[in-house]
Amino acid sequence: MRLDKFLCETVGVTRTQAARLLKEKRITLDGNIVKSGAIKIAEDADVEFDGAALKLSGPRYFMMNKPEGYVCSHEDASNPTVFVLLEEVNAEKLHIAGRLDCDTTGLLLLTDDGQWSHRVTSPKHKCDKTYRVWLDDPIEDDVAEQFAEGVMLRGEDAETLPAQMTVVDEKEVLLTIHEGKYHQVKRMFAAVGNRVVGLHRETVGALVLDEALEPGEYRLLTADEVAQFMPSK
Ligand code: URA
């Protein structure tokens, strides 16, 4: 890989800034000052910046407690995005594994590992997601059965996959779904004549939102948490 690209990724600078660091003689390769960003280096090369060793990091995996009012995209004209909450080098390289609506809160996964996020989100892997749902009207007695059988959502040509619903209170339920259609939970309740007024994701697969995370906070996933979505588990 080119040295300037290596510097962009490890220091979190632009190519122009990397060129400046090189010009200022702050970068060494194998102990010698280098000034050209064009030279090719190995990914594990001995590169130092002001005497500190630089290493390319492996893939990154985070869980966030998404707050209300933040959008799950890199750019938005009207709302802040969840990426502004990340204090990470190269945060723009991360993507979301399973987006939430702007008004939805709770467990959000971010990574730069495309294969891993595919396993989390692909309908083929049928990864369970549990949502706490607050409703406008009291829940009707037959809704759990309707969701277990599958309901037809507006604009779709097949029913939803069987979903499990537990009543917490007359206007609060827990719903586990195994697919991730656009606005799925809100549309499922619309299909049975109710309206979602609050939505919070608690789990994705075996991953549970860490109670220690306040809205807007995030942490790295542990190796075990990452491995839960790998083929061997
Ligand atoms: N279903 C929805 O309707 N919204 C979400 O944010 C997630 C699931």
TrEMBL record:
Pfam families: PseudoU_synth_2, S4. Residues 1-59 form the RNA-binding S4 domain. It comes from the Bacteria. Keywords: Isomerase, RNA-binding, rRNA processing. PANTHER family: PSEUDOURIDINE SYNTHASE, PSEUDOURIDINE SYNTHASE FAMILY PROTEIN-RELATED. Belongs to the pseudouridine synthase RsuA family. This is Pseudouridine synthase. It comes from Enterovibrio norvegicus. The gene is rsuA.
